[in-house]
Amino acid sequence: MQYRLDDEASLCSIDILAQAVERICVKGVLELRMLRNALREAAATPTPDAVKFAYAMFSRVDRDYRRLIAHEALTLAAQQKGRYAPRTRAVRPQRML
Length: 97
Fold this sequence. Notes:
Layout: H1 8-24, H2 30-44, H3 48-60, H4 63-79
Helix pairs in contact: 1-2, 1-4, 2-3
């Protein structure tokens, strides 16, 4: 599997996923804590190895928690829509002489 970390969308996705895990993290569930830490590391130093490790941690989490995380991440993404969008300048129409 190829991991691309050179675009803003990938980095934003990692950040949103980390926020989702943070919101649903249950005290005492080791897999969630390990996933949270792996996502923090991937967000701080977005190397292919860090992302692969975070993906591996996500794969180890129980299916019901993965669904909960995915739902929370989609909710966060919808709330933050446009926050990470590339900034474009408005182009003024030129006057016709």
